[in-house]
Amino acid sequence: MNGKRDKNQGPSNPWVRKTDAEGEEETATPEPELPPSPWSLEVPARPPSPWDTPDAATPGGKSEPAPGTAGSAPSTWGTAGVAAGGTAAGGTGVQKGATETGAAWGDQVSPPSLRRPEPVKKGFKLPPVVIPIAAGLMVVVLVAVALVLLTGGDDKADPGPAQSPSPSASPSYTPPAGALPVQFGVSVVPAAGWTVVAKETNGKQVAAYSPTGEPRAWFWVRQKQNVTASAFAVGIVEGETDKEIAQLGNVRNLECPKDVLVECVAISYTSTPVQGVAVKGEVEAYRRKDGVVTALDYRTRNDFAATADAALVPMKKSVLDSL
Q1: 251 to each of 232, 282, 298, how far by Cα in Å?
Q2: DSSP character for 315?
Q3: CA atoms within 13 A on the CB side of 219
Q4: Which of 39, 179, 209, 217 is the most buried (most CB within 10 A)?
């Protein structure tokens, strides 16, 4: 408390200035030179900022900091307001109202707001393609109204030329006596000794019988629409040889005997029933332009084939003449 240091006390603080009394006591021992204090270093000048206003203040061209801000560039918002006669609030350089003509957003206009503007509500719009369609419909309606007014609304208008019927039998063909009508203008004339099978309901079928009443040959004329001649012929052969040991030939094309025919085919086969005599058969199919297919289904036992083949020629000719 008397201001004197104890003898055993450590070295004094090098950063504290020594008094004269302390200097006298320690003159005997020279002290090392103190290092420079970081607080004594010279602070370099602030580099020029691009935000400084070159024309703002001193004649020497150096910018002066705005009042109330230490070491910062002057605010362009506050400067513009003050230059135009406005007042800065609180000395912070915030512009109260912008009236400078040279502002980027125009004269007498406040600075742009950072708030996103409200989206513009779009009303209902018709697609561009609807407009020409509606115009076309309007033209059609107007033309229809004009036609009604010109014709006086008469319901007895000319219906136009009558549609011609679909092609059928040749108009110059007259069925001979004893011809059996099939359908669609087609007929068949049975050969001598051939009898009509009365139970047949699909087309017309005639057969040749033995003296004992056993059938030995058949000739069946039947028709179908909306089918090809090839498909109709193959279907008939498959039905005739069902449950028989058969050997089928290939479908072959025939020369059509008339211009009204567009497809003419034939297929031959041989078969043996489970119980009976072996037979041979042939199916010919002719398709007309109107879509009617006429099939000639011929089938005979081998032991009666010579007689049946001779009778088949006039019967087939009578059918082809009526097509």
Answers
A1: 11, 11, 15
A2: H
A3: 28
A4: 217
